[in-house]
Write a structure and sequence with these properties.
Residues 83-98, 107-133 have a biased composition (Basic and acidic residues). Pfam families: zf-CCHC. The chain has 133 residues and is mainly alpha-helical. Helices cover 53% and strands 0% of the residues. The protein is built from 6 helices and no strands. The protein has helices at 7-16, 25-37, 43-52, 70-84, 94-111, 128-131. The longest helix is centred in the C-terminal third of the chain and has 18 residues, at 94-111. The chain is rod-shaped and about 100 Å long. The termini are far apart.
């Protein structure tokens, strides 16, 4: 990396630096921090440069905005990458599992009916209407 001698050059390099597709977030963040350290750039600006360097739609990067520290930004990057990898799934609570089990049990009871008369009390082979034939 070329030796930077003024703040303007550091800010220009930060604004032009983009995260490569195959580059890890951690490596990218450290690279940006190294550049910023040459001119003592404030944390808020560094965070903004880092987010701007992520080549993705703004709506996908919303999770990154609002980070006030580099540590918080790293945590948000982990969440962002999980989301981008499609690994985010809604959490299932124990109550949801019980509701599904109850619903399944309830539906299975309702689905057992006599095919002759429609009664829930018996199945077709035991149907009293079938006994006479």
């Amino acid at each position: 990396m070329a030796e930077l001698c003024d703040c303007h050059a550091v800010h220009r390099e930060l604004s032009q630096c983009k995260k490569a597709v195959n580059e890890s977030s951690q490596k990218y963040i450290y690279k940006m921090l190294e550049i910023a350290a040459q001119a003592n750039v404030d944390t808020r600006s560094v965070i903004q440069y880092i987010i701007n360097g992520v080549q993705d739609d703004a709506v996908n990067k919303t999770i990154l905005y609002g980070a006030k520290t580099i540590r918080e930004l790293k945590e948000r990057f982990a969440q962002y990458e999980t989301m981008k990898d499609g690994k985010v799934k809604p959490k299932q609570t124990k109550m949801d599992g019980k509701k599904k089990a109850h619903h399944k049990e309830h539906n299975s009871k309702d689905s057992k009916r006599c095919f002759n008369c429609g009664s829930k009390d018996h199945l077709g082979k035991e149907c009293p209407k079938n006994q006479g034939t």
